[in-house]
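User: My advisor asked me to double-check a structure prediction for 4Fe-4S ferredoxin before group meeting. I don't want to rely on an old file, so could you generate it fresh from this sequence?
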Amino acid sequence: MITSLDIERCTACNQCVATCPRDVFEKTEHIPTIARPQDCQTCFLCELYCTADALFVHPEAEPAMAARLTPSDITPLLGEYRRESGWDEWSENPRYANQHWRMEDVFRLARDG
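Assistant: Sure, here is a fresh prediction for 4Fe-4S ferredoxin from the sequence you gave:
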């Protein structure tokens, strides 16, 4: 569930607004807002596309779990999902190889079976 939007890091690029399939964010004149957190499906797209690492999506979809985190708990986690997924600027770093997206061998085996 979407938990945090760090307004100091946010660049107001509105990528989170554009990529969210459930319209959780509201575009404003400045920084977007988390307008409908209850609609978050925990897909992590907003966090992946946020190049400023200003968003944190808690992996638990339950609001009660996400609410237990304090800002000091969240700060070290900002950008972690993008990095660990090998997304964007991390894609060329072998330490963060994006292996879970590389399913060619699995599909090839199923097809050639």
